[in-house]
Amino acid sequence: MSTYNVQIEAHPVTTTMDAVIERAIGPLVPVIENLYCRWKEESKYEDWSDYETVLQAAAKRNGLEFCGTTRKPFGIRVRTRLVAPQIWVWAKNNRIGYSIAVAR
Is 103 left (phi over 0), alpha (psi -120 to 50) or beta? Predict the structure, then answer.
């Protein structure tokens, strides 16, 4: 497995909300990093539903509501009871970032 220099990249939100979000999604970062690296190498051979199952379990294990996943970019949408909107955590180009998914 390849090792990547992963940086968390935050999109503009308030400093207080940043702290809440980073505390909520922090435990997901190693899971996402591991799965993202694997998916980059094995996507032609492995079923996406297996990745979705692991991401869903990781969200639940960390007290987050699972809202869905995305393949491109690789990511997960979750909701925490501390922040109303969905948080989209994604991995792309060896970076892990997050943004707020505004409800429509």
Answer: beta
